[in-house]
TrEMBL record:
FAD binds at T160, G199. GO terms for biological process: fatty acid beta-oxidation using acyl-CoA oxidase; lipid homeostasis. Residues 297-458 form the Acyl-CoA oxidase C-alpha1 domain. PANTHER family: ELECTRON TRANSPORT OXIDOREDUCTASE, PEROXISOMAL ACYL-COENZYME A OXIDASE 1. Pathway: Lipid metabolism; peroxisomal fatty acid beta-oxidation. It comes from Galleria mellonella. GO terms for cellular component: peroxisome. This is Acyl-coenzyme A oxidase. The lineage of its organism: Eukaryota, Metazoa, Ecdysozoa, Arthropoda, Hexapoda. Its main location: other.
Amino acid sequence: MKIKMLAGKTIEINVDLVKERAKCNFNIREVTHILDGGEKNTIQRKKIEDISLNDGQSRDVIPEEYLSPKERYENAVKKSCIYARIIKTELMNMTGLETLGFNSPVFRRIADAYFKEVTPLLAHFGMFVPTIMGQCTPEQLAHWLPRALNFEIVGTYVQTELGHGTFIRGLETTATYDPQTEEFVLHSPTLSSYKWWAGGLGKTVNYCVVVAQLYTKGVCHGVHTFIVQIRDEETHMPLPGIRVGDIGPKMGYNTGDNGFLVFNHHRIPRENMMMKNAQVLKDGTYVKVARHEKLTYGTMVYVRVMLVNEMAFNLAKAVTIAVRYSAVRRQSQPKPNQPEPQVLDYLTQQHKLFICIATAHALQFTSDWLYKTFTSVLADIRDDKIDTLPELHALSSCLKAICTSDCAAFIEICRFACGGHGYMASSNLSMIYSYVSATRTYEGDYTVLLLQTARFLVKAWEQVEKRRPVTSTISYLSHAFDKLKKPWDGSNEGIIRAFQRVAAGKISACINCIRYHQKSGKDFEDAWQLTTIQLVAAAEAHCRAVIYDTYYNETIRLTASSSPNVKSVMEQLCTLYLLYWSLERTGDLLRFTSLSEKDIFDLQQRYEKMLAVIRPNAVGLVDAFDIRDEILNSTLGAYDGRVYERLMEEALKSPLNAEPVNSSFHKHLKPFMQGKL
Ligand SMILES: CCCCCCCCCCCCCCCCCCCCCC(=O)SCCNC(=O)CCNC(=O)[C@H](O)C(C)(C)COP(=O)(O)OP(=O)(O)OC[C@H]1O[C@@H](n2cnc3c(N)ncnc32)[C@H](O)[C@@H]1OP(=O)(O)O
Ligand SMILES: Cc1cc2nc3c(=O)[nH]c(=O)nc-3n(C[C@H](O)[C@H](O)[C@H](O)COP(=O)(O)OP(=O)(O)OC[C@H]3O[C@@H](n4cnc5c(N)ncnc54)[C@H](O)[C@@H]3O)c2cc1C
């Protein structure tokens, strides 16, 4: 079927997708505007996408998979420069876009059209610039920020070492102050102190933020951040005292040139210590400026916040691919003499996919809410108020952990939903998965971050016990002393309250367990270690309760003035999300609420009914994510649904198809088959 598109281009669209779009009963644009945070944002995003993508500079002539690792990296650098130039010269100064930050999610979104994996400049944008913004004095900021934003220097964030990633206090790289020359001497004293992992470090950057143990006047003051030049600005040669290189192939991020870095008594000026939170004076005197010791960890908190948005977007990509493909794909014959159904019509397929759409919405709204919380805490810190920081740390830690973990699991389900073709590199699902699966580890491992949140929850519990006030995200704890099981009512609000009861019950169980071990003679640290499995589960339950509450309230708020059908489809998705997790967590609900077997039966019925209600709008819902084909980069997920044509077109690009017979036949296979080898 031929369809005339808005831009005047005529394209052929798969007939099943045309029918699906005709079935959709809500205004797709309106949902796009809600997801973008308003119509103005959608218009702005589309304008930026047009400028960045319409001239085709993002496209590769040869698919990246067929290039050598070196060629892939070089191609990524080339395209990074093209894209960075567009951002710098065409977008940032454009009228109407003044409010757009260098770290706008729109820039990040478009980057996927340029890079199948990642740009070597991701850590420059994502970590180097934010650390400069967060850790420098005004004078340092004036010196470094313009240089970094203008790409006169490119940098990364070098913290992790071979021996330690999680335990930052255990890092071994030293920065020892020499008052004679007013310099810091950076040194890697052991093999385990070698810096390892930083993105862009291997070959791309010439500067970096280094996290090292600060020594002055013979005293260690713990980890601090330093701006370190590692390569010559002209020749790009590593400076004396620096050994730097690429760490080699990984499961993903292969165009990201993650690197190693070894210091041999490398000297940097005193002014290169990032001095917003602590200073070393010329004579070597150490002066603590910040009121909260952990403000040095600020960049990590920022990235954890940004990652929640990243997850919403990546899941939206994966489910767009899987839903469109499932509308095009036909398989099996449940009834004799009937046509093969679209796989999207199978209830089990809907069960795999509609939760992914709902999760993308839940994470998008949660991420917007978290970002607002983050900016308000930053404003507090600027006013020298630090009491809101622990809650932000607890929230960003658990949300980063749960969102990255859920998103990785659901993306893999999207791949399962696409059968064998989902396993093709050209589906792009494997690339999306390998990108997302790393996010569960980096910027704080899943378990480690949930234990940070648990620490906050245990302290909050003690506050509640003393009848002291607690902050809003944990106010539900005040009902936790109710020994009775929470009555189950099954409404959306009821489900949210039930899960808050689950979280409170799990935290209470942890407290009991810690106290039990303490009573039997263990010290607090041992009692804590013996409770960590339950603590992780309690922090997860708390995090999910926060997501349910945020998703539900934001859906109501954001659709308050929407058209009736948009309002109802958004509410249906939110209800589906709550029902899905109720069914996933029946054990918890049976333990902490009055949920009965009959209630579980009802939940299942309601859940399946909701799948059926959402079914006609499924393609419309993924269209509403409004992800351009260049960004999706998928044979299975393109807007036109020409799945088989695209699969064949991509297969023909394989260099193995360039010749009818490969030379290995004559060299190896034939002699072997003829018994001559
Ligand atoms: C052209 C291009 C265009 C492109 C355009 C693109 C443009 C857009 C770009 C946009 C970019 C988007 C995407 C970004 C992707 C970036 C990629 C990133 C890659 C990955 C980077 C990394 O991977 S980089 C390394 C991260 N490595 C960690 O993540 C280590 C975890 N490890 C810890 O984080 C600590 O080690 C750990 C466990 C807390 C214990 O720290 P510790 O031992 O010092 O502390 P304790 O546990 O003893 O805790 C003592 C007390 O401190 C409290 N506390 C602890 N932390 C706190 C904190 N942060 N804030 C407040 N309070 C804190 C705690 O709550 C206790 O409080 P209390 O005493 O009151 O209970
Ligand atoms: C793709 C990628 C990019 C990266 N980019 C950067 C970068 O740009 N800059 C940078 O500095 N780093 C970077 N990293 C490193 C990353 O931040 C660390 O790998 C991450 O923080 C995890 O730390 P680790 O490797 O030390 O894991 P470990 O802490 O050694 O984890 C191993 C296991 O031990 C468990 N564990 C550890 N501590 C505890 C505990 N206290 N309690 C219970 N269980 C525990 C963990 O749960 C995990 O299962 C990157 C990593 C990856 C994969």
